[in-house]
Amino acid sequence: MTGTRASGANPLIEFKAVHKSFFVRGQQFDVVRALDLAVAPGEFLCIVGPSGSGKSTLLNMVAGLGPPSTGAVSYGGRPVSEVNTEVAYLTQHDTLLPWRTVADNVGVPLELRGMAAATRRPLVQAAIDAIGLAGFEGHYPRQLSGGMRKRAMLARTLIQDPQAILMDEPFGPLDAQLKLMLQAELMALWARSRKTIMFVTHDIVEAITLADRVVVLSARPARVNLIETIAIPRPRDVHRTRFAPEFETHYERIWAAMELGALAQVPA
Amino acid sequence: MSATGLRSEEALEQGVAMPRPASRGEGRVLLLRTVTLVVALALWQALSGNLVDPFWISSPLAVGAKLWLWISTGVLFRHLLVTIEETAVGFIVGGVCGVVLGGLVAQSRILQRTIDPFVTAVYGIPKVALAPLFIMWFGIGLMPKFVLAGISVFFLVFFNTLAGAREVDSSMVDALRMMGARPAQIHRIVILPASFPFIFLGFKLGLPYGFVGAVAGEMMASNEGIGFLTQNSAGQYDTAGVFAALTALMTVTVLLDAGLARLERWVFRWR
Ligand SMILES: Nc1ncnc2c1ncn2[C@@H]1O[C@H](COP(=O)(O)OP(=O)(O)O)[C@@H](O)[C@H]1O
Ligand SMILES: [Mg+2]
Fold first, then answer.
1. pLDDT tens string B157-169
2. Is the pLDDT of residue B18 over 50?
């Protein structure tokens, strides 16, 4: 087992006794309750859980876009108190700028750093090629399918070359084949750069394929039902992980933890 | 498998990217419009001198003759140019003020709410009612027309800029903030382009108002411009002249509108 353990000295991302409630028409609405979680530097952490359980809410906290109601979220040992520019965030919703072409969207992070257009161009092209959107550089987002827009957002995320990446169901709308291709691409990138990745998915197979550890959340309000350390050795081949001897056990344990979550949903 | 997946995506994208086929009814509509115009003109011509005294309604032929006279002597273009100049200056100055002030006010929710009733009250005044005041202040030259045209454009652009800046998708702003964008960069890259459709709409709606403002100013006190031409013809009981001036006005508005529609399609080709 080679996955980095969060029990190692200094976590990069840490949730301590985190509660989060929203108020909807004066009604308190608990989304996260008493959640503790630590992500080690360089770790690939996947989060699975029923939809509406608070997965996006957790990523938002790390991003500094929605602070916890009580408890603390820290990044690099410091509490996250404002927008966290150390991490790149591939959100669940589309944030491409509709009036910019794919190339101009992907280049935004470099443009913000004041990089000259001529210097940006080859980098943008490489990022677009890497996610298989070559030939669509001049298209506007409206002219792309949902999956293609996701890939453009992925290219824009990776071009930032951040320390940590938050990804919220990034491969959800993709067909199976493309999904495997991008998973392989992401794993290779992670293996090269050892970035810390928090990856939300509803696909258990995907989680086992990619992760060092899989966190299973309960239904809302989110608590950690299970933290499963994936024992499948690396480097992994995304096409073959599901045939690894360890796979079956992981799948069953995670599946069981998910069902527990669904049952816990009953009382209001 | 993957090839199929990609191909279907490409097919989808091509379907979307293809230019919209010219709607089949287009030619027919054009024909019907022409027929409508010809019938209306014929009816007008038939009524004139038979059922109604041409003194009141002139006739298409007389109006045509008058227009031709004005065109051939250069009178029409001289006056038209004056009106267009007034409109253009008012349009640009009023519009730019509208964008700048609208953008500034949008920065502060409190400021916005404070000035809202005042701005709405002033906006509610028919701008033509301000003409006598402006003539008192600025004389009978071009200035009062600039101001009248400008103020009409200003309010529409101001309100639309304000609305546009409010409508910006906050998740796009958040995405940029996470990439380390400074406030000025967020304005340039997200807020301005996102509110641009609104700003454009303000200009588009404002243009005819600016035109009306300029013409109204001319009608009250002036010795040039299309408004003057109309007023002057009426003063001489020259009905054909009044209709000729109105025809010129109509033509300009229609052309302006068509031009703006084309510009709009080009500017918003990403939609
Ligand atoms: N800004 C908000 N105001 C009110 N409720 C919210 C808000 N954001 C999220 N929620 C609620 O919190 C719950 C968890 O949301 P989310 O984190 O998006 O779930 P997930 O990503 O796991 O599907 C949902 O029930 C959602 O309706
Ligand atoms: Mg979500």
1. 999 998 888 888 9
2. no
CA A53 – CA A197 distance, rounded (Å) = 20
Same domain, B133 and B206: yes
**Of residues B266, B93, B106, the one with CA closest to residue B195:** B106
A contacts of B183 (beta carbons < 8 Å):
none
Q: Note the helical H segments in A29-168.
A: 55-63, 102-106, 108-112, 117-130, 146-159
Residue B153 has pLDDT above 80, yes or no: yes
Closest CA to B46 of B35, B55, B59: B59
Last residue of a domain, which of A161, A187, A214? A161
- Domain end among A127, A145, A161: A161
**Domain range holding B14?**
3-47
A31 CB near ligand 1 (under 6 Å) = yes
Determine if ligand 1 sits within 6 Å of the CB of residue A27.
Answer: no
CA angle B167/B169/B173 to nearest 5° reads 125
> Do A111 and A226 fall within a single domain?
no
Look at A112 and B12 and tell me if their CB atoms are within 8 Å: no
Residue B59 · residue B122 · CB < 8 Å: no
Does the interface predicted TM-score (ipTM) exceed 0.90? no
From the CA of A198, how far away is ligand 1's center (Å)?
A: 18
| Contact B13/A at CB under 8 A | yes
Domain of A132, in residue numbers: 98-161
Q: What is the CATH number of the domain that holds B220?
A: 1.10.3720.10
* pLDDT one-digit tens code per residue, A174-191: 888 889 988 998 999 899
Domain of residue A14, CATH code: 3.40.50.300
Whether residue A151 is found in the same domain as residue A175: no
Q: Is A57 inside any structural domain?
A: yes
Distances (CA, A) of B188 to B101, B181, B183, B192, B269: 16, 10, 9, 6, 19
Position A5, amino acid: R
Query: What's the token pair of residue A118?
Result: 């001529």
